[in-house]
Every structure is written in structure tokens, then in C-alpha cells.
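Reopening this one. Same input as before:
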Amino acid sequence: MTRKKVKLAFMMNNSSQKATFRKKRKGFMKKYEINKLCDVLTCAIMYSPNKSQPDAWPDHSEVRRLIEQFKNMPEEERNKVMVNHKMFLKQMVEMELEKVNKLEKGNRELEIWMAMNHFIAGKPLNDLQFTDLKEMRRMIEEKLKEFEANIKSWKEELAKMNQLLGAQPTVAGENIQNVMQMVPWSMWDVPTKSS
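Same output, byte for byte:
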């Protein structure tokens, strides 16, 4: 049986809020596994609007000890591990912007490839701007370099195979045909540096 996904939203009903807080607090306080599994020092302080004193996990003395230990750390070391809300949000925004930039670049390249395919199919390139054509040229040049690198790698592999078989190193001819018949894979299976 699958569990129903809980919608994370503020609870308006006060009694439901209190009951959920009690249940979640107990579950949270039982999360001691991270201490045991990862051998790390952890503590938690949880304030409830219905209590005068906060809940501390694992206990008040351990929380105080860990906070003192943290305060006594050298400031440079403390700042390495400490992230405030603003820094956290900044990191998250930077990560999301990086994802957006990658997606935009991928979409842009896909648009250019589609335009090239339309051109190959005989359709005019009326909608393209000069910058689009420059981008198309750059992408074609990159692909050509990639193809040239693959061909060079294949030639090197074939030359090595010819040497191993005692044949004269040639790029084309009977020796390569003999090698291709003896080897159970085709030239397209030769691993390249990019793969």
C-alpha cells in the first residue's frame, strides 16, 4: 500500500496543528540514526508556541556542549561550514541559473540543428538572423573537429591492430580488410576519447 503524499501547507486548524506538531516532533527526535551511521555530532532545538521551554535533542546538556564546541571553533573554520539563509538562497539561485543556462544553450543548439535540417531538406533560411548563421557555423565547425578526432582515433587503432598482426601499417587496403574480417567488431565500435 502506498502512502499518501502530504501537502506542505500551513494548517489553519489549531487542534490539527498541535496534533501534527506532537507527532512530527516525536518522529524528528527519534532521528538519531545519523549519529550512529555517520559518526557525526548532531543536536536539535525545537520551539513550540504551546511550551515555555524548547525541546532539545538528544538532551539539553548535549545541546549546550555542542553549541559551546561550535562557538570555540576558530572563526575561519566556523565560516567554512556555516551557511545563513541568505547564503543558502544565493547558492540555490546560482545552481538554478546554471541549470537554466544549460537548458537555454541546449534549446538554442536544437533550434539551430532543426534549421540546418530544414535547409538540407530544401527549405529556405528566411527566419534566421546573422547571429543564428554564425552559431550554425560554429556548431558545424565543432562537429567537424569531433569527426576528425574520431577518424584520427580510428586510424590509430587500425594501425595498432595492423602492427599486432604483423602487417604493414596502412590506412586502406588489403591489410585493413583482413583485420576487419578477423576482428568480431566493426570500426564503429572503436572507443574514442570522447566516449
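So the earlier flakiness isn't reproducible anymore. For the record, Residues 183-195 have pLDDT under 50 and may be disordered.
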